[in-house]
């Protein structure tokens, strides 16, 4: 076979990039239209995600996580939602947790680690990966998560930090409305439901969280800076930390997140395709 010219190689690379973008667009479309269970199940490992979303209360973790869940068909484990579900069920844990949450403190590491461990082991939605929202919140939780994953020969891919000034969070938190059953969140001004105090999807009533007051927010922010900022520092050392400006509009924050995923994906998939046809350079 005659040697390939540089221009030919470049043209082939361009074609491969275009094909890959098209495949990703089609996959995203399939994900957003629901897809069927078998097509989700047949996704390759390169389409899975294992990530954590960090950021202070109101940064937008709960707003962005469901979109990532839809994109990757992964599970969204929000520890705050799990605790609130215990509160609603009036379990012993729920009663204890409510006191701590309303004071802006943290529930014990042991309880939270076991909660996540149970989900990662038993929740079938987590087979295609996971998005951890609100966990880990202490360095001890981060270390335990690393141990849990290394037992399964897995590693986190992204530790995304939603960065935003404390001053912008008061209006976000005090205007938030929640659909308790799904964890879906709205905002009275920034993201209002179609009908007053009513969930768009189920038509059920929305509520305000009991810890969403300006006073409790101050305590939650101080807990975040004291106990969770060191977790950010922990991931900065690992090379998987990615900061995102969370003061932007929600659509823009989502675009920044997509940028994080694309950056990671492009070199490896393109590399593997190129190497398969002997053009990796
Ligand atoms: P948790 O439920 O995790 O609360 P949090 O971390 O304080 O975070 P939030 O849910 O308040 O904020 P968010 O970033 O999800 O914001 P959202 O997207 O809704 O935890 C609650 C408590 O449980 C803790 O205080 C602790 O006690 C306990 N706990 C939980 N996990 C624990 C753990 N691992 N260890 C120990 N204890 C634990 O957005 C907020 C509002 O802003 C919404 O109304 C939204 O519509 C709006 N909004 C979002 N993005 C934008 C935007 N870009 N522009 C304008 N508005 C926006």
TrEMBL record:
Domain Adenylate kinase active site lid as annotated: residue spans: 176-211
GO molecular function, one term: ATP binding
Catalytic activity field: AMP + ATP = 2 ADP
Main location: cytoplasm
GO biological process: ADP biosynthetic process; AMP metabolic process; ATP metabolic process
Assembly and binders: Monomer.
UniProt domain comment: Consists of three domains, a large central CORE domain and two small peripheral domains, NMPbind and LID, which undergo movements during catalysis. The LID domain closes over the site of phosphoryl transfer upon ATP binding. Assembling and dissambling the active center during each catalytic cycle provides an effective means to prevent ATP hydrolysis.
Protein name, UniProt field: Adenylate kinase
Organism per entry: Heterodermia speciosa
């Amino acid at each position: 076979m005659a040697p390939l010219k540089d221009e030919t190689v470049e043209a082939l690379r361009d074609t491969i990039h275009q094909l890959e973008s098209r495949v990703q667009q089609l996959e995203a479309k399939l994900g957003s239209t629901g897809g069927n269970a078998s097509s989700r199940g047949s996704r390759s490992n390169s389409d899975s995600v294992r990530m954590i979303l960090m950021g202070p209360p109101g940064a937008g973790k709960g707003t962005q996580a469901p979109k990532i869940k839809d994109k990757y068909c992964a599970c969204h484990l929000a520890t705050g939602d799990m605790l609130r579900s215990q509160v609603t069920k009036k379990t012993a844990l729920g009663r204890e947790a409510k006191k701590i949450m309303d004071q802006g403190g943290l529930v014990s590491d042991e309880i939270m680690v076991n909660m996540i461990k149970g989900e990662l082991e038993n929740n079938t939605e987590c087979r295609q990966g996971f998005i951890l929202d609100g966990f880990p919140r202490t360095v001890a939780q981060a270390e335990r998560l690393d141990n849990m994953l290394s037992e399964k020969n897995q590693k986190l891919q992204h530790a995304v930090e939603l960065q935003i000034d404390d001053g912008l969070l008061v209006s976000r938190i005090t205007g938030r409305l929640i659909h308790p059953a799904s964890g879906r969140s709205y905002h009275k001004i920034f993201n209002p439901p179609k009908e007053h105090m009513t969930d768009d999807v189920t038509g059920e009533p929305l509520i305000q969280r009991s810890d969403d007051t300006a006073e409790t927010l101050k305590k939650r922010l101080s807990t975040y800076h004291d106990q969770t900022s060191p977790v950010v520092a922990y991931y900065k050392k690992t090379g998987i930390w990615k900061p995102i400006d969370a003061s932007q509009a929600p659509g823009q924050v989502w675009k920044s997140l997509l940028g994080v995923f694309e950056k990671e994906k492009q070199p490896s998939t393109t590399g593997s395709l190129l190497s398969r046809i002997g053009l990796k350079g």
